[in-house]
Queue: 4 jobs
Job 1
Amino acid sequence: MLALFYLFAAISVISALIVVSARSPINSVIALVVCFLSIAGHYVLLNAQFLAMVHIIVYTGAIMVLFLFVIMLLNLNKATEPMKSLGTRIAAVVAGGLFFLTLVAAIRHGITVRPSNEFDAGVGLVRSVGMSLFNEFLLPFEVSSVLFLSAMVGVVMLGKKEAVLAASSAPVEPLTAAELERRKA
Amino acid sequence: MITTAIFLLVLFVVTLTVAAYSTYGERKVAAFLQDRIGPNRAGPFGILQPLADGGKMFMKEDFVPATANRKLFFLGPAIAMTTALLTGVVIPWGGELTVFGTTLNLQGTDPEIGILYVFAMVSIGVYGIMLGGWASNNKFALLGAVRAAAQMVSYELGMGLSIVALVMLTGTLSLSGIVEHQIAHGWGIIQQPLGFLIFIVCAFAETNRAPFDMPECETELVGGYHTEFSSMKLGFFLFAEYTNMFISSAVIATLYFGGYHVPGLDKLGLDPNLATIIGVGAMFAKTFFFIFFFMWVRWSIPRFRFDQLMNLGWKTLIPLGIFNIVLTGSIYYLLK
């Protein structure tokens, strides 16, 4: 089991590094897919089968497919690395350094901490996930579903708006010579 | 452990054999529906045709276009075939078989979330087509790949919604649990007729079968996502489609037609082993019927247009799926 953990951990870390270092976006996306799959492996090791499968279906199967879809449609195969301005670079270094400091400060004392209660092997099964979602975390769960609904309505509204705009701007398009002749007559 | 390994090996061989003979079956069914004879040269009734086809695939030149992305070009068919073969593990092919005192369960593994595992494998399977199509560096292949991705993501939603209603009734996500519930309370098709209809339409779209085979539509896209593929790489793409068809048929039989259940068999008082073997036979008979159904539809109904496909998925099947959930919930609540 421990060997499996180290295997998945190595795959996760290496693929995550490839995600940020790969020059071609498509390789980044594939590395991210591998990273997500190895994280699903971690979930299975913790006996959280439900989480593992939902993770694969939602992230690997839907979101990453859309990423790939966009990259394919825009044909972003070329490695484009626009140079950032000096201010952006300084800001990035400062932000990254602060984040690193926070991480070190958080982990420095955290390493020796042991979990106070025993690991419950049933915590990730469907029944316990459902129980905690619909009892303890009912309000956040419902609120997040409203958030999703509003996002969906927003997307539909934006899509409709553009369609209406396109339809209303259609007559402004230059008319063909034959059409102009017809209108004059 | 050993018995499971042997079972998985047998399952692997059976899956490949059924997929290979589905290609033969497809050509015979097509011939029958078009009033032709079909393949009859290799062996009696052309029974050796799949072997001849497979041998031919291996012998052909494995050509890779100069502008293709070689790694992804190789990875595409590999992913398609692997994910197609992985799904059969969670399907309960039969009850329990007792051989020399050891009990053998005719299911590779029975995770609590069996049906979600099937969905996960289906959703990974789209990468094979997408990467293969994109790596070919050919506009027809790219269009086929993009169509496949859009189609599969859209129809996964309808499929998921049809399953939600079934899971509400059975109260479990485990495939063997769903079969046991059907044995006790009647088959899924009786309890969920609308859900079955949505599921089977989505299954056609997920397996890229006609009338939803836009990703490889030859009148528009030459060969679609596998235009540039040749030799066994093409063979793997085609083979993955037939494997997916076999697995989808088995899932349909499991979810809506009682799996290995034969009504009235338990009243005959047969030997448990014999009953199990009859159950496995019933499971395969149901599966083969749906494979035939897939072919029947392919050679009877013309292809949809892509916008019609999207309209059907988003504006018909998803609302119908939600309606089915509400309907199932209300009936369940009223009867309880």
Job 2
Amino acid sequence: MKKNNSILLSTPYILWMVAFTLIPLGVVGYYALTDPDTGVFTWSNIRELGTYLPVFGQSIMYSLVSALICLILGYPVAYYIAHRGAVMQKILYMLVMLPMCMSFLLRTLAWVGLLQDTGIINNLLAAVGLPRLQLIRTPAAVVLGMVYNYLPYMILPLYSTIVKIDHRLIEAAEDLGCTPAETFRKVTLPLSMPGILSGLTMVFVPAVSTFYISQKLGGADTVLIGDVIERLYKQGNNANLGAALSLLLMILVFVCTGIMNRLGGDEEAVVV
Amino acid sequence: MKKVFALILAAAMTAMVLSGCGGQEAVQSSNGKTTLNVYNWGQYIADGSDDSLDIIAAFEEKYPHIDINYSTFDSNEIMYSKLSNGGITVDVIFPSDYMVARLIEEGMLLEINYDNIPNYQYIDEEFRNTAYDPENRYSVPYTWGTVGIIYNSNYVDEEDVTGWELLWNEKYNDKILMFDNSRDAFGIAALLQGYDINTTDEAELVACAEALAEQKPYVQQYVMDQIYDLMENEEAWIAPYYAGDYAIMAEENEALEFYLPQEQGFNLFIDAMCIPTCCQEKEAAELFINFLCDPEIAAANMDWVGYGVPLSEAKNYMDPETVEDPVAYPSDEALANGTSYDYLPPEITRHVESLFMKVRIS
């Protein structure tokens, strides 16, 4: 009886998954392996993927760098929040979430207004007699956009992991003669590893497939794989090659997150 | 239990299949009005700003039983993708000449009943029996125009403005914009090298791609409708674009100038109104097309849009300054070297698109 109930309860989600994830995935696979004009089976879309490998490489680099910067910026913030009083924690948590209440597109456009050659920052610089800077259409601007947009996805999982760390373990380390630095390195950091890994994944996955940020903040050189896929569907009217690229992107994301989890697993094993 | 599960699954699948190819019935809004879906280029109909006539509001006022659902596209190719992917209902579209030919060729347009468009009588003779619709069965011309170079005279030296090579001038590094569609981009590259803009010769296409790759380091961005903001705010100084849109930009920034490379040649285009096969409200669509061909309405519309009007009758109602403007209405002599885009076979279109993609990701 108990078992039956659980199936019944999960049925809506299973149906949802089948209808909107599994079947569409099948459609993506079908498109990737058929010819755009005739609809017959072909490997040509897959063979063409080689051309796009440098773009994949570039996308992965940008998102890895962004994920690492998010970690470096986000960890102290999460640590700080986790060590405040209960009320303060709630307020700070809300503040981290606040930017996400506004449209992601608007926030990115706001950065364009700040950074462009005729934007607010450069106009201020010019007003006080300083030379204008090349801020927008640089790799750094793209990374900035990714970090800015995805930082909450790093802070939130880190916070919820750090806040659950048993304080007695830290006291024990201190009692046994660890300096604060050693306590952090040997106790807090290993125990927050699950949060670090899920934070890295949650930043990396949306960043690697983004297209809007690179189009708005990047130059003609910063074309990411999301841009290519979008272009193939819209301008190129080549959904088949687009599907093949999406499929490869999905596989790469699985592999990358798999590697991350594997690394985490090993480290945990070492600690235990 | 398993049976229940299977039943639910089957029901869900059926519902999905039904909604997949169904959903094509005409949408009658709750108040009994007809909804007319119009799919047009951005900034391509007078919208009431700058003291212009709000064309859509005027139409809805004249025909209160019709509601217009208006949406826009950036390029012919995007519009084509949307239509060919299916699943949408559009009643009136505004493709350019070569795209009209492609849509006719692929059976994606309905024949227009010209009895419902009495205002067709005003269309000038030179815009009838065109190369893209030789028998006048599928299209009614909306505008015509040229593609030239818009530049900011505060930053660009007049002596550099000699032709399409301005878009390849290293001096204006990072201040040059380029078309984000392969047809216009390759057209310009072909003109620069003295090829025909409708070339299908493999060596010439590759040479065009190489020219675009050479240009890429100096290009700030590849854009379509974003060009308005970028040029008006002087974020960019040089951009190839449609002459009609220059008027809108020049109103915001007086330093902007337009140059038509008469010697090298340029694209001369006609944008037309057509009814796609996914149309649900053909009569309302014809009513709308007829409305836009009314000389007084067309005059009010084109005063704002800034493109050439294909019905001379309308010029009587237009702002005389616009009619005499050599940018919107170049002399016959200036137009001598203009060429229109021809319909190219799909494999060439796809090949050009993939060459362009390679330029973009290089």
Job 3
Amino acid sequence: MGGADFIADSVTTAFGLIFGGAPGVFSAVLVSLQVSVTAAFLCTVIGVPLGFAVAVSNFRGRHLLITLLNTLMALPTVVVGLFVYAFITRQSLLGPLDLLFTRKAMIVGEVILGLPIIIALTNTAISALDRQVRDTAITLGAGRLRVSLTMLWEGRFGLLAAIAATFGRLIGEVGIAMMLGGNIAAHTRNITTALALETSKGEFSVAMALGIVLLTVALGVNFALRYLQGRGEVRP
Amino acid sequence: MTDNYCERPTSLLLAGILLLIVAAGCRNEAAAPDHRSELRSIKLATTTSTDNSGLLAELLPPFQAMYGIEVQVIAVGTGRAIKHGENGDVDVILVHARAAEDRFVESGFGVNRRDVMHNDFVVLGPAEDPARIKGSADVAQALRKLAATESFFVSRGDDSGTHKKEMALWEAAGVPPEGDWYLPAGQGMGAVLTIANEKRAYALTDRGTYQAYRDKLALEVLVEGDRRLYNPYGVIAVNPARHSDARYIDAMTFIGWITSPEGQAIIRGFKRGGEVLFTPDAVLDGGAGAD
């Protein structure tokens, strides 16, 4: 089979998978979306305030912390998987919670993977703001909270980029999903673990098609984010 | 202003769709037996060979229909499946590495091991067969020839049941598998067959996986039939005395089912490309031996 045939075959298969309503694919898309959107949301809620705090405060070791965060952006997903596994395997501290091989475990792992990314990128986005934004807000008599909100608003493009980057890393990762989810059909099998499985079975066209499905899903989410961003642009 | 008006419904719609999808996923989770709800579930760690061949897709639905127990399958190598059993991450394991299984039971991690079925291993290679091992009845001698001619050999290299078997065979051959010709892939059986196919290399595989992949491969069966290539599968419950959370009764129900006449009949009738993949061992015909 030539390369062009292979790609064409994959695209055809992808359309078949998306519109043919194969139940396995639909549930994999749902698992991917549910886990990654939830994890990205939690990362945003936890990470943006932390990144903001790092950006606006001045403390000893701040630069060291930023270097550390930048390093953690390189965390291999399997390492996160092993780390979380050590805490949730039956005999360990959190074993009784019965988390291993569930979507909750995948979410926990992905939040750990995403947090350094969103904190570091939020810090960059807020630090890049002109110092005048803060000063002007203070001059206008804004309180602490009001100043913070103004800065977050002014830095919204950078923040949305941070969220999009985090989400992209989460929905595309396979190590955590495999290790903590276990790739159980209809429960924890998401697009990436299904993709890995089909590849190992030698079903390259189906695997490639799943890759196209994943990108389509990610495209949809990014369009949604872009519309939110676009709406912001009109306002001032 | 007009722009704003036009854009808002679109973004709201998008956000709405996203929320619906997430909500659907959440409801799905609530209905799924991750928690101990109406439909009971057990977790089975098994090898890629039983899952990828499609056997479990035949075996599990009738079991679930009869007992209301869903079996959640975690398909990994035998080494990791046993590890998950030791750690109590799963309730039952179905694997193929007799020595490791016996250690698992002797160390008190598992109880009630039963023979389930067997197939056999074969040595595959390119049709040209540069090492001239085709038709050899002695697998150890065939491996010695591979080492002597330094023919490419792709190994699982992942502590799976097949890898353990391969290591035992090299030991029997008395030659260490070392050198540029020996390629430990560290991947599953299917990936190894694909690599061997591309590199026109030799490989050891279970017959079931070979049959499932045969259409995609230009490799041929060169060595088969040696007694040492026998590949038995065993099912073992995780010891409830060690892991009190293990769903022992449901695991034993599963072991009972898979070794029952019904379960064994499904195994005997399971075909891929017109060929039988596994021979059941648990229910003996007229008291005959299991081989």
Job 4
Amino acid sequence: MSNLEIITFALGGLTIGSALMVILSQHPVRSVMYLILTFFMISANYILMNAQFIAIVNIIVYAGAIMVLLLFVLMLLNLSKDNEPKSTLSMKLAAILAGGSLMTVLVAAVKDAVVAPITEVSANQQGLVESLGQLLFTKYVLPFEISSILFISAMVGAVLLAKREKQIID
Amino acid sequence: MILASIFESGVSIQFYMILASILFGIGVLGVMLRRNAIILLMCIELMLNAVNLLLVAFSTYFGTGDAQVFVFFIMVVAAAEATVGLSIIVLLFRNNRSVDIGLFNKLKG
């Protein structure tokens, strides 16, 4: 077993462990912290797989923007362990049964999947900014422009939804 | 510095397939187990990340960059989804004073 394999397996174990802590910890803020840890672990996986650009974007977008937004809303709503909604024991059992069987089926189906072997030993530079930018602004330039429309509509929607409505009391 | 691809040094693609499946399963489990709407959004993010991980693994394995562009677009959609989802949750909290998804059944008629 080479060093790289040990690092990869340890990283995979840590990723699963921190993802489990997200759904098992009772305090919502602690859950967010473990999710940030999970995103950093996934970014480390990306770096191991030579996808540096995606790794950095993952940290900036997920751990930076989305998690700060989640944490901000969590603090704004002032949720704590006391008013955390609890599910009943039967619902928990059903959820664990259903989720566990889905996971078992997925892993069992994927475990023996036959994948085409690597055909050529390439220099493997497609994860860098240069080649990804080349691809993004030539082949995928239309989806790139359409995503800006998506962002504008999401922005308008968020502002419209979160705006406090005028009280109709006369 | 460019690392050699880890798939050329012994790690099999099956490892990442199993890892992504387990992460996706944990996300599904969280959606069913928890009743806090914000935690539900977080579990959806977890599932999206499991898919991203698998896409990047196959992108590296086959040596093409297209899947990584796709991951980039998934992140764009996830960011838009998180903003709209969170503002809906804030709106629901303003009406119900709670984020328990069991209380969000006003559309049931």
